Every structure is written in C-alpha cells, then in structure tokens.
Amino acid sequence: MGQAVTPFITLMDLSDPAQAGAVDAYVMAHADGTPFHRPAWLLAVQDGTANAALLLAAVGHSGGISGLLPLHHVRSRLFGQALVSTAFAVDGGLLADNDRVAAALVSAAEHLAHDRGGLSLELRGGPCPGPTWEQRADQHVGFVRPIAADDDAELLAVPRKHRAELRKALANPALAIDIGRTRRHLRDHYRVYATSVRNLGTPVFPARLFRAVLDRFGEDADILIVRDGDRPVSAVLTLYHNGRVMPYWGGGLAEARRLRSNELMYYRLMGHGRARGMTMFDFGRSKVGSGQAAWKKSFGFEPRPLVYHEWAPDGARRDVNPHSEKYQRRIALWKRLPLPVANLVGPLIARGLG
C-alpha cells in the first residue's frame, strides 16, 4: 500500500467565483456543513464588520477539496484579537473528510496564528482539534427538534402552559405576519432587534452586517416581522440550510411579552419553514442557565451542550465568556444606556466581539 499523502493546505481566494463556488459546493454536500462554513457568511461578516475572512482549505492533486477551516481575524481594543471559526456564528470549526485532513488544517491554523502575532484560536463546534486545545462545553446550549407535519400538530408539540400563551396571540386579530427581504424589513428588524439586545445588556451589531447577510445568502435568508397594526413588535432574521430553519437574530419590544408576539413569531416561522420544505427547526444557542434558555425549553425544545475549542500559543485567551465577572459588569452597565447612545456606540464595540 502507498504511504498516505499529506494534504496540501492553502488559503482560498473568496473573491474568485470559481473558488468560492467550489467551497460552497463542498459545504452544502458535507453532512456537518453549516451556513457558517459558507463563503456567504465569511464574506458577509467581512463586509459588515471589517473582520478579515480567511479560509483554509485542504486541496488534492485533482483540485478537489477534502476539508475546510473558515476563520475571521477579529480585532477589538476591548476584547483583543483572535482567529475565530467563525465570527458572529454559533457554529463553525473543522469540516474535513478524515482525521488526517483535520490535523493538517489545525496545524496550518496554528502556524497562521503564530504568523499573525501569536493570536488565540477559537473554533465554535466541529471535532476536537487536538490534545493541546481547551474544550468549553459549559457556556452555551443549542435547541433543535423536527418541524411537525402541520400547524395543528405544531401547536400540540408546544407544552400546555406555553401553548395557552400562544393561543392568545393566535386569537389577536391585530397581530399580522410580514415576511420579506426589502429595505423596510431590514429597517424594522433592526429597530426591534437593537432595542431587544440593549435591554439584555448586549451591544447591537452594525446594521450593514444584517444587510450583507441578506445580500450574500439571497433566498437562503429572510426576515419575519410581527406587526401590531402597522407597528413592528417582534422580528427575526432567519437562515435556511439543508432542511433546517435557523432563526438567528431575533427579538421583541417591551410589549411583546404582553402581546405574546414572540411566541407567534416562532410558531409562524415553523409553518413558513415547512412551506419551504424544511424539516428541522434550529432555535440557536442560549447561555447556560439563562432566561432565554428556559423560554426555549418551555416551547418544547430540549437543550444540548455546544462544544467549543480554544488554543493560544502562550495560553492567553480572550475573555468573551458571558459568565465571567468582568463580562457581567459590562452587561449591567450597557442596560442603563439610553437607546440612541447604545445604537450609536454599540456597533463599534460589537464588531470586535466576533
């Protein structure tokens, strides 16, 4: 038998349509591929936050791809720098055909981190990169379950207590669903989302990031808005990937709790996904022990730990742990900011969180 050939690792040129197309085809065909491995995500984040996209690929003699490690070089005066797979994502990490390819990609990433000034590496998901990497499985949980066969079955899949609240929203004739990708959808979504995350103590992302995601993903992304009359009260930007509905950036105004418009939003999104041929609903991640995690569980979703991996040449890593004391102090301060100030300053801070 011949000796195994070490994979050739290269940085792909995502500005080249042929290379970007080959990467996208590989991700879409891979069982573990996510939207956050796709060139659309890498380029949207680069467009919207100025964090450079770097895509390591294992390429064979025939030119075929056998593995990928997408990265963003995230820079922040407050949080430091890191190579992240991938920035602003809940997943990412290694995507490879076998362990040998994965090891070659990890080695290349570590060398890249050294070459860029001794940066730390953060991989969100994927297989463990190696014994020198630290594993984190205590910070975030994810929520996924199948989409029911029809609206009635979906309603019955919601636990009784939460179902009663959802019925109140369904019976409210003033609440209407609006789905689209227009400038108005983007504007209304941003207003709702910015208010919602400020109230949670989180800086809002730049508006151009949301525009870039819609532009880059095309029909694989849209916005659903719940309107109380003409006024948007809940909104979510959703990604669609290989049969999965993935509500990603969502929130509601203060009156959303009274109107139960968030419940209505996600219930209608399940139906919208079903109509698009989707079979799974991925509710995204939440912090362990958070009210958001409890809310998703009350909607009929069971949490599962999300495993992330970190490495640094000198052992020093960024402090972006949502449970750290320093991070919690920042959250408490942010909640007290007036909304116009938060919306002005927030994007400058948030683009460095990654």
TrEMBL record:
Residues 160-297 form the BioF2-like acetyltransferase domain. Pfam families: Acetyltransf_6. It comes from the Bacteria. InterPro entries: Acyl_CoA_acyltransferase (IPR016181), BioF2-like_GNAT_dom (IPR038740), PEP-CTERM_FemAB-rel (IPR017469). This is FemAB-related protein (PEP-CTERM system-associated). It comes from Sphingobium xenophagum.
